[in-house]
Amino acid sequence: MCRSSIVIRIGRQLARFAGAEQGNIAVIFAIALVPVLTFIGAAIDYSRAANARTAMQAALDSTALMLSKDLSAGTITTSQISSKAQSYFTGLYTNTSAQSLSISATYTAASSSSNATVQVTGSGSIPTEFMKIAGFPNLGFGATATSTWGANLLRVALVLDNTGSMANYNKLASLQNAAKSLVTQLSNLAVNPGDVYISVIPFEIDVNVGTSNVNASWLRWDQWDPTNYPNSSYPWQTYCSGGYWMTYAQCVGHGYTWNHTPTIDKTLWNGCVTDRDKSSNYDVTSTAPSSLATSFYADQDQSCPTAQILPLTYNWTAVNNTINSMTARGATNQTIGLQWGWFSLLQQSPLNAPAESITGNTYQHIIVLFTDGLNTGNRWYGDFSSTSTQVDARMSTLCTNIKNSGVTIYTVQIDTDGAGQSAVLPACASDSSKFFMLTSSSQIASAFSQIGTSISKLHVSR
């Protein structure tokens, strides 16, 4: 065969190979596989790095807080900041994927225009599993936390459910232990006396302001009767024409007739107070009492909380004693507890919170509301057994007013009876992270611990 024929045949075969399409898919797939896997793997590697950074941020936040407390208390000197920061961080950071970890701590002394600060900065990296194919064997990350002390002062109101159903499923005892642990957690944030104040507001249908306030100018007695039964031998009998056991104020508020003329003997008063008038929204506002219309109704609820309201204090023994004295009785009116929690944070009658006069400081006002039920009644609405949407509506307005005043609200609901989630508590919380829905008493401690950690982080700026 001549050379020209061979060349022609080879040329034809090459042309056919070039025009063939059967193998192109495999070739293209092989070429595209590397970048596709790299992109997918990059997302996984970046996610791991993000998790490592989140864990670092939490550890740095806690490290900065502990350093500032140690410095203020004189436990360490400024020359020991770096070594102490490393020690704290090592104990707090548990992400095992991170490597090349490095942290540094810087102290800035207080001046005439600013408070003392500790800044803790950290960095690290994680070895990549996929991106190393593209030439990136490691991904770096970093975070910073700054703790400023002497500037953020806490005022916390614990509004705690004392209703009868709290006696079930060990709820009351669990609440008492969790609340006292929260008190310890928050009180430990105080560098100086008064840095942290806590009030305790036990509630059911009413609150107990204490008989020591019997002559207070902010009380009204025009719907108070020291007795509620015509004959104590027949407790099903009542002075209220509605046929329910109600106090004078509750009976009239519900539109019934009170068939008794009371003898006003204030020595018989049990310290109970019910809702203010709602005609001008006094039951859901912080208007200070200055007239009969703005005053608080003395009441004689037989289920009045045994634990009296404790105004803001940093006497931690008194706080814990109040929590220990709580008992379970009565029906649920979260609105009145929440309003008195708000009152306890205000420098006005009736509870007259301590002055907030330290210049250069930020006062953080917080309410923690815990309840095991749904609203069943107040002075006007509800049968004290079934859920009352009217009471919920009053409470919703109150929650909005409190949050608009700058107060942060945490709400905790425990439902052990299958009643369902409250229609108002999730929205009452300042945001979704501050609402806790529980179904077991064993969860109360964890919820309060998380709240304590969240409140503590209000001292950290990033």
Describe the structure.
The chain is of the alpha/beta class. The protein is elongated and about 90 Å long. Helix 7 packs parallel to helix 8. Strands 10-5-4-11-12-13 form a 6-stranded mixed β-sheet, sandwiched between helices. It has a 4-stranded antiparallel β-sheet with strand order 1-2-3-14. Helix 9 links the parallel strand 12 and strand 13. Helix content is 34%, strand content 19%. The protein is built from 10 helices and 14 strands.
List keywords for this structure.
6-stranded mixed beta sheet; elongated; alpha/beta; 462 residues; 4-stranded antiparallel beta sheet
Topology:
Elements lengths: L2 H17 L4 H50 L7 H12 L6 E10 L8 E11 L10 E11 L3 E10 L9 H17 L8 E8 L3 E2 L10 E2 L27 H6 L18 E3 L21 E3 L11 E4 L2 H9 L9 H10 L18 E10 L17 H16 L3 E7 L10 H4 L6 E4 L5 H14 L2 E2 L1
Helix pairs in contact: 2-3, 4-6, 4-10, 7-8
Short description:
Keywords: Membrane, Transmembrane, Transmembrane helix. The chain has 462 residues and is of the alpha/beta class. The protein contains ten helices and 14 strands.
What is the N-to-C succession of helices and strands?
A: HHHEEEEHEEEHEEEHHEHEHEHE
Shape: elongated
State the distance separating the first and last CA atoms: 85 Å
Give the overall pLDDT as a whole number.
88
How much helix is in the residues?
25-40%
Largest sheet: 6 strands, mixed
**Residue windows where pLDDT falls under 50 for at least 5 positions:** none
Number of distinct beta strands: 14
Number of helices: 10
SS strand fraction: 15-25%
Cα-based radius of gyration, to the nearest Å: 32 Å
List the strand order in the largest sheet.
10-5-4-11-12-13
> What would you call the structural class?
alpha/beta
Protein name: Pilus assembly protein
InterPro entries: Tad_N, vWFA_dom_sf
Organism: Bradyrhizobium vignae
Domain Putative Flp pilus-assembly TadG-like N-terminal: 23-65
